[in-house]
Amino acid sequence: MASPPSRTSSAQTARSAPYNHDNPSDPPDFGTGGTVSLRWGDFLFQTSSVAAAASILVVLAALFVLLVVDSRESLVRYGIAFATSSVWDNVKEQFGALPYIYGTLVTSAVALVLAGPIAVGAALYVAEYAPAWIRTPVSFTIELLAAIPSIIYGLWGFFVLTPVMRTTVEPALQRIFGPIPVVGILFQGAPIGKDLLTGGVILAIMIVPTIMAISREVILAVPPAQREGMLALGATRWESLRHAVLPYARAGIAGAAILGLARALGETMAVTMVIGNSSRAITGSLFTPGYTMASAIANQFTEADTAIYFSAIVEVALVLLLVSIAVNIVARLLVWQIGRGDPAALGGVLV
Amino acid sequence: MTIEATDARRMGPLIPALAVPAAAWKERAASDAAIGGHAMRVESLSAWYGNHLAVHDITLDIKPRAVTAIIGPSGCGKSTLVRCLNRMHEVTPGAPRVSGRVLLDRHDIYAPGVDPVQVRRHVGMVFQKPNPFPSMSIYDNVVAGLKLTKAPSKAVLDETVERCLRQAALWDEVKDKLKQSGVSLSGGQQQRLCIARALAMAPRVLLMDEPCSALDPIATYKIEALITELKREYTIAIVTHNMQQASRVSDFTAFLLAADDRIGRLVEYGETAELFTAPKDERTEAYITGRFG
Q1: Which residue from A234, A281, B31, B107 has the fewest beta carbons nearer than 10 Å?
Q2: By the 8 A CB rule, do B77 and B54 touch?
């Protein structure tokens, strides 16, 4: 432990001649136990940091307890059927949240599929190809997108994206993919614009900045020796990206995708405005109006006039919390496996 | 090395841009004796980073099937020089630039129209820090370069992996774990894996940029023994700040030095035995006797 200068012995400060090792009358000063105030500082710092860490767990636990208590009535009455039934009828007091769970998972998956390649592509451009004078403004602009309040995305989605989806994008998708078996199932029905697909698209736009910004940092952190090692074998620039840089960065890029996914799972306002807000039963098509769990809560919370209705809404929140935690755990396992650089193990997780 | 690879080398350049008519090739082969024989000749080479001249007017030969050491204190430009020999200098950040000529088997690798990517397939490189690709197995690391250009059959790949790992004196240590990640090996093993990876491309010249600087003495000893073994079939240029290493492994030595202007210049070039026992330049003598650097 380093001693503050004030506690240095006078014998040391006053000495001008070289230390005389043969003089036993001048022992080194190791302190005399007068370091209590210093230990107090240690104690205070340690305690406060432990408290800070513990408070996060306490908040999570409190959240969980509150949700369980407030949804008790619904939990007891519907049991597991709450998560497996597709009927949501507050008049008949039948509450099954499966369409909401489905809506959340599907819109988030669509968002990830659309945003992932675009974000990683943009990150590669900024990190590897862009000249310095372009790099900063492009990065700044993309990161600025992350700071835009979601209600603004919602309004834009409502007035701009929805009509475009209805009149142009969805009919085109239907023409191209509709006749193909299996894939075509996703694009059946009347293109109405306000549906799961549009919800996924707006989420994709919102999570691109997150994934892009983190991927860029990850790509920039790949050691130059990895790039050069591949170039020195006669690889082109693209080949060195493809075979050295991206594999090295893949755990970090997957981590970036998870952060994007986490945002997509919980996003409420923008999705509510474009998803159609319908509790109808699940179909395979993305052209179905639906609900995500978050948008269902936001939309119906104020209408919950009976105790059981309110309780059911809170249970949706509980399920959303559990689904988010589950997705995060699975995704983290995935990143961990990828990070070990063992391709076989990755396959094991995916299967 | 297999017979095919040796034949391919005798048959002449594989790079279209470097191809010469057979008659001219014969004529040049005849003049080989006059030149004294070289795999690579560096002629009036200067290299810059932006406005900073890093090495100035270097002329030296890299003799075939021999080890040429490039020595000198830190900052003398020896790494820059060696990175000019496979056109890696130009991928370094900081506005790199080169002037002069570098002849590989009498063909200028800086001639207009020469593709640097092709040059690097003929001039291999081993780096200061071992840099195996962590996402690839040991097996895939060895054939990473081969797989870039063509899709060789499994039999060819298997043969290449075993041959190159044997040449790199690594086969016995890894033959039972070829599917494991390349980074599961020790530092010295990783560096030998990187050597095997470079050998798999059957390079005409192998460049080594301080290959032992991150290794312990035993691993260093193994690499040095390996270099001595490899020079029977390969042409090697090695950068080192370790004079003992240069004197142990090399046949020819080039001594570079940067004066106060931080511009690296060639002070002396000659046979290693001569340069270390009877240096012609007093700066060389000062350096090899440990008076600076």
Answers
A1: B31
A2: yes
C-alpha span between A240 and B78 (Å, rounded): 25
Q: What is the Cα–Cα distance from B60 to B41, expressed in whole angstroms? A: 6
| Range from A50-54, A299-303, B68-72 carrying the lowest mean pLDDT | A299-303
Report the alpha-carbon distance of residue B198 to residue B144 in Å, rounded.
9
pLDDT in tens, B273-285: 999 999 999 999 9
| Domains (range + CATH), chain A | 75-350 (1.10.3720.10)
Q: B94 falls in which pLDDT band (50, 70, 90)?
A: confident
Give percent of chain A above pLDDT 70. 89
Quote the number of domains for chain B.
1
Domain around B44: 38-132+206-288
* Antiparallel, parallel or unpaired: β B96-104 and B67-71: unpaired
Distance CA A159, CA A273 (A): 10
User: What is the CATH number for B284?
Assistant: 3.40.50.300
Shortest CA gap A346–chain B (Å): 11
Cα separation, B255 vs A305, whole angstroms: 89
According to the 3-state scheme, what is the secondary structure of A264-320?
HHHCCHHHHHHCECCCCCCCCCCCCCECCHHHHHHHHHHHCCCHHHHHHHHHHHHHH
In a mutational test of the A interface, the residue from B82, B114, B117 whose CB has the highest number of chain A CBs within 10 Å is B117
Q: Which helix (H) or strand (E) holds B48?
A: strand B40-49
Domain presence at residue B172 = no
Residue B5, domain member (yes or no): no
Separation of CA A202 from chain center: 16
Say yes or no: A339 contacts chain B, CB-CB below 8 A: no
Residue pLDDT, tens place only, A174-202: 888 878 888 887 887 788 888 889 999 99
Q: Which residues pair with B253 in a beta bridge?
A: B69, B270
Q: Do B144 and A233 touch (CB under 8 A)?
A: yes
Quick one: closest CA in A to B184, which residue? A341
Between CA A225 and CA A228 the distance in angstroms is: 5
Give A289-322 pLDDT, tens digit per residue. 888 888 888 888 888 888 888 888 999 999 999 9
Element (H or E) spanning B265, and its range?
A: strand B264-271
Residues of B with CB under 8 A from a CB of A: 86, 88, 91, 117-118, 120-121, 124-125, 127, 129, 131-137, 144-145, 148-149, 179, 181, 183, 194, 197-198, 201
Answer for the pair A230, A243: CB distance below 8 angstroms, yes or no: yes
Flag if A229 and B133 touch (Cβ within 8 Å): yes
Do A233 and B124 lie within an 8 Å CB cutoff?
yes
Q: Is residue B176 part of a domain?
A: no
β-pairing verdict for B205-209 and B52-62? unpaired
Tokens read off for B111: 């001639």
A223 touches chain B (CB under 8 A): yes
Interchain pair A233, B201: CB under 8 A: yes
For residue A9, pLDDT over 80 is answered with no
Which whole number is the average pLDDT over B91-97? 87
Q: What SS3 class is residue B40?
A: strand
Report the C-alpha gap between B107 and B113 in whole angstroms: 12
Element containing residue B96 per DSSP (H, E) = strand B96-104
* ipTM of this predicted structure: 0.84
Instruction: Please give the radius of gyration of chain A, using alpha carbons only, rounded to the nearest integer.
Output: 29
